[in-house]
Amino acid sequence: MIDREKPMVEVRKVHKSFGDLEVLRGIDMQVKKGEVLVIVGPSGSGKSTLLRCINLLIQPDSGDIFLEGVKVNDPDIRPEWVRQQIGMVFQSFNLFTHLTALKNVMLGLTKVKRLDGLEAEKIARYELERVGLADKADAYPAQLSGGQQQRVAIARALALNPKVMLFDEPTSALDPEFIHEVLDVMTKLANEGMTMVVVSHEMGFAKSVADELIFMDNGVIVEVGVPEEVFASPKTDRMRAFIGKILG
Amino acid sequence: MRDPGRDSGWRRVWDEPLFKTGVGIVGLLAVVGLLLTALNDIGEISFDFMASHWSFLLRYALTSLEATVISFAVGFGLAIPMGLVRAFGPGMIRRGGLARGVASPLYAIVTGYAEVIRGTPALVQIFLIQFWVTSTFQGVPGISLWAGIAALSVNTTGYQTEVFRAGFQSVGQGQIEAAKSIGMRPTQTFASITFPQGLRLITLPLANEWIALFKASSLLWLIAVQELLWGMDYIGTKLNHPIDAFILGSFFYLAILIPLSRAVTFLERVKRIPGLGVAEPQRRALFAARFARLDRV
């Protein structure tokens, strides 16, 4: 009778503390295949920590993380196996500074997937073309603009053919004129059916692309809903106050 | 409008960094040469003596070089894992569990080693190790040289450990996190990210350590290793030309160290990451642009 698809990512009762500070206080959420979930919330609310728990860059203290129904925060499962199936894009790009754009995208293919150089290069060039940077293959990160670096970072994550993409405030470190080019790539990705979890305060993106929006505050999920509705008629005072702040 | 001052051939050549260094060295040599010639003329020193004995010192210079190269290589090999322990040991200890059980004693030993080596005179270390080695391997031919190499290795390992620690710690946390996020294992992350990036950051301190080590190899004279300083002292005393012998020997140190430091500068330039750090290539690009402009005139 329950005929719903298994969620791509499911988070159950996850808690995480750093010292005395409890950053995540019982998080439950899920993302279905092909869905785009946007997480908003004031800084310090635990958004980034939640994202890092999903690909086990941070081990949760308690609770479970499932990827396609498989519990991944399990001592028997290698975190590297989980991470190569989950792409991640960082606020500060984190491109490998000593490698060209092409080599950045190839590294995971040759080292993690153990493809030979030629095949890896073919895939890497294709991914760079997908983000519109085929002509920047030989540039080093420091020679690229912020927007270009972030698009290379997206290509690097995509090259491993991930099941889910996590975006941690991908446009927060960008100059305003470069934000749209990154959002365009992300929108294209969403339209192609990529499952995405995006921490971002780009309201335009959330409204036009996201299937669901989560508002986090103080380590708990305060409100969940369709973005349009949540923005138009927030149910909680905290959400209302937050929307007021980000809309200025 | 052309600016004749900027575009003149002389200016162009002068702007080449290698040329400036060359002028500097030639100028310095000219001054030193004049001084030495004057001293030669008043009979304080003797060029004739130097000319006839430089080949005698060559052998001993090669012994100094050998001792330095071997001990530097040993130190390099040992300092990489030790630098890793120094850099990432505290984090592993904090994480607890099995990692803590392994990391705690290792970190204590490596830290203690680096502190003791850097906190005691090299000469004391050389004497101690020489006493131990020569009493253990009594009568083995050439043992004093190997005792010396062992002592220099022990010494440079301590210093290089700290150099590598600094290099590894300077690699950004974001770089490591990104490597993890694409599924790389810790060993792969080290080999592909931390090591190549760290090594670039410490090229200069490592070259400094090599230079210091080569000069420190002269201390081996005191444990009767027949190296460059020993050779200088030998001919100086035996033939009663101490000043000549020491000036001649100094030129051997210079002849080995100056090309080396130039080579390191060159290596830094070749291996440097475009767009990061100082603006050297921009100056070179400007230089190339000037050439291009002239070609078209």
Give the key terms.
heterodimer; A: 248 residues; alpha/beta; six-stranded mixed beta sheet; 9 helices; 37% helix; B: 297 residues; mainly alpha; MetI-like fold; 13 helices; 84% helix; flat
In short:
The complex is a heterodimer of chains A (248) and B (297). With 248 residues, chain A is of the alpha/beta class. Helices cover 37% and strands 24% of the residues of chain A.
Topology:
The complex is a heterodimer of chains A (248) and B (297).
Chain A: E1 9-18, E2 21-31, E3 36-40, H1 47-54, E4 62-67, E5 70-71, H2 79-83, E6 86-89, H3 101-112, H4 117-130, H5 146-159, E7 164-168, H6 176-191, E8 195-199, H7 203-209, E9 212-217, E10 220-225, H8 227-232, H9 237-246
Parallel strand pairs in A: 3-8, 3-9, 6-7, 7-8
Antiparallel strand pairs in A: 1-2, 1-4, 4-5, 9-10
Chain B: H1 4-7, H2 9-15, H3 17-41, H4 47-95, H5 97-119, H6 122-136, H7 143-170, H8 173-181, H9 186-201, H10 203-216, H11 228-238, H12 242-271, H13 280-296
